[in-house]
């Protein structure tokens, strides 16, 4: 509950940043460049898989070791994870330089600004993504050892500072590159402070002299667990975060901007629910290590039921009062089809149920089943969205997500669910 309270504060700060900054940036840049800004900022989510899943893998391993009361193992896992993530960041840095220099960002984003302006904005996003790879490790470790409140405090600070910076510079009519850099780079200051705070923890700083065999085993487990999460994150990025880049390419930045506003409005529902999933994931893992199966089943059922009720109620309100909410929010009329709004509302409910189950499966390291269903879902989803955006328009995009999710995830769960859960409860963690 303590972690959940701070998670609520952090998500509330993120929601404030998400909603309050939009009208200011829209007025400062205009509809076209706002669409480009929204697309660039969304790339941070799209490229979240570039840590190769090591962050989530580390959290699982840390939570399991903590559940077994093995503090020395936690410290050694943290040390090996830091080395792995720093290596990933150093390998990606030269690639980011080449991508920044060679890709025609102004044409790719469908906006009429100078090539230099688009390149600077893209560089800010790419290098923020790379810096986040080692800096976000502290959040994962703190969640794994039951200190998620500390991570969420710093996240709240980062979001509020980002909001203040973006709004202040938008009022001053700063260019696209400056507003993009503020939106994606400022939260990293909080991550840096959190990383420093974790490094001063005496319990985690004191590693034992592990043998080379033990260190090799830890590295192997981090890579094995991490690479599986990498594929899951990549599939999710392709399925969920490619909407705005696809719209920018096929339909232009103006339509991407309108879609981004609708997407951000409905994102408040998964954002609110994530305050439950973030602390619950490592607690599931600790409970599995302690073999407290009765608590797990009871918690999973309750969280699934509550998530569906909350998402159904919230999405219905957002869809029914969309016009009034937009008038109060951006003070700019947006013509949105009821078909699109119904699709977003339906997807919110399905996403809530799916995330409740996926949180448990991730904690239990049920990877092969999820890898198959997620890859099939991503392939169907991206092909369907490309066809719909290019041939029909943007109003059917959420319905593509709903349909492909039913085919690739709901049906297999109904068929294989009992076998999957039986395998979890007979396994040792």
From TrEMBL:
The keyword Cell inner membrane does not apply. It is found in: Cell membrane. The keyword Nuclease does not apply. Keywords: Cell membrane, Membrane, Transmembrane, Transmembrane helix. The chain crosses the membrane at residues 12-30, 36-63, 84-105, 120-139, 151-172, 178-196, 227-249, 261-284, 304-326, 338-364, 371-390, 396-417. It is a multi-pass membrane protein. It comes from the Bacteria. InterPro entries: Poly_Biosynth_Transport (IPR050833), Polysacc_synth (IPR002797). It holds the Pfam family Polysacc_synt. This is Lipopolysaccharide biosynthesis protein.
